[in-house]
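thread from #wetlab-drylab

HS: before we spend reagent money on co-crystallization trials with iron/sulfur cluster, can we at least see a predicted complex? here's what I'd submit
DV: go for it
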Amino acid sequence: MTSCHAPNHHTDKLLNPIYFMVMRQNWLPYAKTNAPRYTSYPTAVQFNENTNLETATDWMKSLNPDEAISVYTHIPFCEKLCWYCGCHTTIPNGYDRIGRYFETLLKEVQLWKEELGQHAGASHVHFGGGTPNALNADHMLQLLDALHDAFRIREDAEIAIELDPRTLDLNMIRSLAAGGVNRASLGVQDFNLKVQQAVNRVQPFELVRESVERLRNWGIRGLNFDLLYGLPFQTADTVRDTALKAAKLAPDRISAFGYAHVPWFAKHQKAIDENALPDTEARFALFNVIAETLQSEGYVAIGLDHFAREEDPLAKALSAGSLKRNFQGYTDDACDTLIAMGASGISEFRHGYCQNLKNIRDWSECVESGKLPIQRGVPVSDDDRLRRKIIEKLMCDMSVDVEEICQQQGHSDTELNKCFEFLKPLANDDICHIDGSVVSVPDDARIFLRSVAQAFDEYASPSNNSPRHAKAV
Ligand code: SF4
């Protein structure tokens, strides 16, 4: 073990003196550096307007007719703002704006249906936000019907949706069940009332328990919980208690994301009391308390921040070496093509990424004029593809044989010698191991996966500490 299980003076003020993993002092500089989340490569920072509707139209025509696709729909509305929020969302104050957005969304679905080349139907469908259950139950069912019609959603498809338990009613659950939804992701964050009050999101355990029960009763059995560490007033006790309560409800997947405090960028975060925020070392310990608790409750650790039950497809994909990473995080979705609808949605094709207009009014005007609302993007070059594969392997399997990937993709392994130079200090500090051409990340340095992957990133090398990305810890 490269770290011990004992309290230290830095974390005592926030964490109880019971067992938790303490960060080594030589890891602290790495924890404070910024690194992309690598849900794509190149990342969205590289998107520009040289890639536009014309480029994307060429890409979308060249689908393989035997190829299944993934579909994403973005609903950028929430009833109330959580102060930690870093998502693309709006508080609409009433249903009118949401209703208009829904009407335009149906038109965008039709535009994609007309423009897209032949494909073999949709095998993965995901609704994200914002809060997808900001739509009313009738509109949700109509939207699901429209997606079934436009993209021929397969019988065995995974249809997943992000839900806010505070606003989830029975009518919505009925619509989701009728439309074939089979996986729900509930925003939980933390079950402690003081923590919830400090971030303007009060949702008692009982409310989440009821939502879970209702979803299961209506046949929606795939369940994810999203937890958040790094929130004000969190301690080892609160996060352990939250993780135990979460595990008690037995969702098949739980994620533990780090709160990114960037009030200069997300102005509403100024409402959060900075004095109550855990420091870097405490954040490291909080993550590890959650990780250890979930693993002791039978969850398998997956990549950077996911946990899944052994029988879950994500855990099986990890064992089989087929785990993937896309804009929704870790996935067993093997599709190369992702069609994204709604303001700010990002689509992926074999040739590159493209993003819809972010501003709801601009997006709406463009769709209403009969054009797909694509604003910007980035092509993926051969070199990007090679680095993307290596980064994805690291982020998913925590290990990659660089030479093997280079050979598979027809590249010389010497092309990436510079990356190994970047990795040397991390290897000296036990954040990664290098054995010939194999780079691996030990379990206790899991939280630094992004920093190791960054060594292979041509655009954001470790020497380029871009504030546009979140801190490693
Ligand atoms: S519900 Fe989610 S998207 Fe909406 S404000 Fe809260 S964190 Fe942001």
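DV: The longest strand covers residues 153-163.
HS: ok that's useful, forwarding to the group
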